[in-house]
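Mods, move this if it's the wrong board.
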Amino acid sequence: MTLYDFLSGAVAFGFAACALFFLRFWKRTREQLFLAFAVAFLLLGIGQTILALASIPTEERGSIYLIRLTAFLLILFAVGWKNRKVSA
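Not the wrong board. Structure tokens:
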């Protein structure tokens, strides 16, 4: 096992811990922003796990990074949805 594999696993574990952290707050408050953050961090953890476990050459990793893009777009959408102005 190389140092890269170990650190990739640690990063994936950190993403999973963050997802559980936000999921706990979502269960307590039912605020959709916390659920979006939990799902986004779970997606980031899944993407990191795939990169760590699969022996995918560097040139072919582009499709894996779409998972990260989805996570970041989910965060942006959730923050925008939370801060939208309600016109009366």
